[in-house]
Amino acid sequence: MPNLEHPAYPAADLLHLEGLVPCRESQVSTLLSIFGERQQFSFPSIFIYGHTSSGKTYVMKTLLTTLQLPHVFVNCVEYFTSRLLLEEILIQLQSFSSGAEQTSPVHCDTLSDFVRLFKQAVASQELQDQTLYIVLDRAEQLREMEANILPAFLRLQELTDRNVTVILLSEIVWELFRPNMGCFEPFTMYFPDYSIGHLQKILSQNHPPEYSADFYAAYINILLGVFYMVCRDLKELRHLAALNFAKYCEPVVRGEANERDTRKLWKNIEPHLKKAMQTVYLREISSSQWERLQHGDGEPGQLKGLSAHTHVELPYYSKFLLIAAYLASYNPVRTDKRFFLKHHGKIRKTNFMKKHEKTSNHLLGPKPFPLDRLLAILYSIVDNRVAPTANIFSQITSLVTLQLLSMVGQNDQLDGPRYKCTVSLDFIRAIAR
Description:
Helix content is 47%, strand content 9%. It has helices at residues 11-20, 25-35, 56-66, 82-98, 111-124, 149-154, 156-160, 196-204, 213-227, 234-254, 262-277, 287-295, 316-330, 336-340, 351-356, 361-364, 371-381, 390-401, 425-432, and strands at residues 45-49, 71-75, 132-137, 164-170, 187-190, 369-370, 405-408, 418-421. The protein is α/β, with parallel strands linked by helices and 433 residues long. The strands form two sheets. It has a five-stranded parallel β-sheet, with helices on both faces.
């Protein structure tokens, strides 16, 4: 029995829509009840929120396109000013009548101009008899525009006296939108995150035709068992599933196992999923490079230099500053003379040094150091002479901003600021290389 039913829309279209939006049937059913029939006035504004990759944009596009409802879809990140946003809405309205992408340019400087031009566009396209939907994706960007833009969109139906509904899609809650002077309250709707069962059902629909659905579903179950605790993003999981499926099928292709031999297939794919865990979300290399990396020689847990720090680009002296900060954090002050002076003389090994010589400073963590010690080590490790200019000090501030260094204490200390180096030894090796 179909879950989506509405007397205003054909049953075949609703059945097709239900197959396109799995695990979101309840949200689509609620939206259809709010929309009503085509000629009826809908709610003036609807606010839909939920975490990233919860299906807000996809469901809304699919719903409006499948049922062939007149709509305008605008991403507020692409059109980041009020003028660009209003003009894009009017340009898309023009395309309804012309049926082509290229339309005459529209100039809209103020909100009153937009209301006037909007009335003309709706009247010319004979849209008075059905609801027009304006969807604003990434609507949190509206808070950065003029103060009258958001309240105007929320009651655009009243301002234009036309059958129009504005739908706001956002990742934050409505309480962070509400202006101080008050505004028309939209109908709020929440899209929850996909559960592991929902992700299993959605990802299993993409199985290749040469393999059975049960075989691909078992692969998705293994993939979610590894990645679900660290990644709930449907797009990222779909990318990981496509990227690692060929490796999962290798024993079957070579004839070493059949599709039901789950244990042997898991043994083959486990080290490669662990490698993928280290770069989830980063996308440091392309899919073809990742496949070549999987087929190359090396230990399963080794990334062959693939990590975030190999792609960090810093100015010339910032690299030396970071190396000097690492040396200052992990070497005791008493060793500076021995390490950084050419003629330091003979150094006695005290009982304290003998007692603690087996303790690794990396296990103890970074120690704070003053600014003058950082600069002293910098001057000793750089070949040419470095003048303590404002450029050097600004680069130290930039390293703190990038969280490669952390400032310890307050800025108003009389003895000067103290810092800690927050990067790992592998990071420093990559920078020094």
